[in-house]
């Protein structure tokens, strides 16, 4: 039995969906941290993943320099080649360390930023560059934050059980890759709650406009979920994520491309949120704007409490 007047409905079966890289795994990790106070007991297992994120920043930087027509000296070009051809082992050889240090200490990033404020580089590249020295040390073990800030694509179904804020959650994350999205519905195991994660920072990406690959993508994915009969009874938690990146990128961004009346980032966020919330009945939907890597556990814990309460108090559905 739950607390006075409430019903014990068993665990809250929670499906975590969203496009690739939106923050589904980050959400899972935050829930686990809420209960266990840490996201993993085996931080050393993430060494390769964190280092690969660093290598990828430098691999992509060369492409960014080329597309922005930034002059690359022969010495820096040789450093790019060194990193490009390196077959990743967890202990970086000195010549790779030297190549990364040389590129980091060059002015290439500054030159690129002078040409274009938002660079087409992997997520959280600033964080990766700032911590590069640590990542390359022989005895380095990733911190929780290093793991949270790194990206590796989820493959297959990821399940977890978490008890937090007095509620039991059974979590299932499905990957956001488009090949996987076509299979999502095969794995809808009568959920109570769908957490749909949306990357707000996409609003500041040119690919979101003028028939770019992000245009209408997330809204379309969501629209087809909402009309899926298998999800007719669920409650929805909409996580508008990466508010930190949005705030950083939105300064000076022209949101009139999104809708003619939008003159500030705040208006743009609200407008975008309404494109999702209007598709759902008001009493079945919670929307939160968060940073799943930066917000405090207090903010996130409060969010989990609210969804638990929602579940317990919802009327019994036929
Ligand atoms: N700056 C910032 N980065 C975030 C935030 N949330 C997630 N990220 C980063 O976004 C990237 C993708 O996050 P994931 O949680 O792995 O994304 P996912 O939705 O699970 O992606 P797939 O499993 O490929 O479908 C990672 O590099 C995270 O560090 C956020 O609030 N702010
Ligand atoms: Mg994932």
From TrEMBL:
<keyword id="KW-0547">Nucleotide-binding</keyword>
<dbReference type="InterPro" id="IPR011025">
    <property type="entry name" value="GproteinA_insert"/>
</dbReference>
<dbReference type="GO" id="GO:0031683">
    <property type="term" value="F:G-protein beta/gamma-subunit complex binding"/>
</dbReference>
<dbReference type="GO" id="GO:0005525">
    <property type="term" value="F:GTP binding"/>
</dbReference>
<dbReference type="GO" id="GO:0003924">
    <property type="term" value="F:GTPase activity"/>
</dbReference>
<keyword id="KW-0342">GTP-binding</keyword>
<feature type="binding site">
    <location>
        <begin position="241"/>
        <end position="244"/>
    </location>
    <ligand>
        <name>GTP</name>
    </ligand>
</feature>
<feature type="binding site">
    <location>
        <position position="154"/>
    </location>
    <ligand>
        <name>Mg(2+)</name>
    </ligand>
</feature>
<dbReference type="InterPro" id="IPR001019">
    <property type="entry name" value="Gprotein_alpha_su"/>
</dbReference>
<feature type="binding site">
    <location>
        <position position="25"/>
    </location>
    <ligand>
        <name>Mg(2+)</name>
    </ligand>
</feature>
<keyword id="KW-0807">Transducer</keyword>
<dbReference type="Pfam" id="PF00503">
    <property type="entry name" value="G-alpha"/>
</dbReference>
<keyword id="KW-0479">Metal-binding</keyword>
<dbReference type="GO" id="GO:0007186">
    <property type="term" value="P:G protein-coupled receptor signaling pathway"/>
</dbReference>
<protein>
    <submittedName>
        <fullName>Uncharacterized protein</fullName>
    </submittedName>
</protein>
<keyword id="KW-0460">Magnesium</keyword>
<dbReference type="GO" id="GO:0046872">
    <property type="term" value="F:metal ion binding"/>
</dbReference>
<dbReference type="InterPro" id="IPR027417">
    <property type="entry name" value="P-loop_NTPase"/>
</dbReference>
């Amino acid at each position: 039995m739950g607390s006075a007047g409430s019903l014990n409905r068993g665990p809250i079966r929670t499906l975590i969906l969203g496009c690739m890289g939106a923050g589904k795994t980050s959400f899972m990790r935050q829930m686990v941290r809420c209960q266990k106070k840490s996201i993993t007991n085996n931080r050393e297992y993430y060494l390769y993943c964190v280092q690969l994120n660093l290598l990828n920043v430098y691999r992509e930087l060369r492409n960014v320099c080329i597309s922005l027509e930034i002059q690359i000296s022969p010495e820096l070009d040789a450093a790019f080649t060194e990193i490009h051809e390196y077959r990743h082992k967890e202990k970086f050889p000195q010549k790779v360390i030297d190549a990364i240090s040389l590129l980091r200490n060059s002015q290439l990033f500054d030159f690129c930023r002078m040409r274009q404020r938002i660079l087409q580089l992997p997520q959280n590249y600033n964080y990766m560059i700032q911590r590069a020295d640590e990542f390359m040390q022989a005895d380095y073990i990733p911190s929780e934050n290093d793991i949270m800030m790194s990206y590796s694509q989820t493959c297959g179904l990821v399940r977890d059980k978490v008890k937090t804020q007095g509620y039991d959650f059974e979590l299932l994350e499905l990957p956001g890759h488009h090949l996987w999205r076509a299979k999502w519905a095969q794995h809808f195991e009568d959920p109570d709650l769908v957490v749909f994660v949306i990357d707000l920072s996409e609003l500041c990406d040119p690919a979101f406009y003028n028939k770019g690959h992000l245009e209408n993508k997330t809204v379309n994915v969501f629209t087809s979920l909402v009309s899926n009969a298998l999800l007719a009874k669920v409650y929805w938690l909409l996580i508008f994520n990466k508010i930190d990146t949005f705030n950083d990128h939105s300064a000076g961004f022209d949101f009139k491309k999104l809708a003619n009346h939008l003159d500030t980032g705040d208006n743009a966020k609200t407008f975008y949120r309404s494109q999702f919330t209007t598709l759902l009945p008001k009493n079945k939907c919670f929307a939160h704007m968060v940073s799943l890597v930066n917000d405090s556990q207090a903010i996130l814990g409060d969010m989990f409490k609210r969804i638990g309460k929602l579940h317990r108090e919802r009327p019994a559905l036929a």
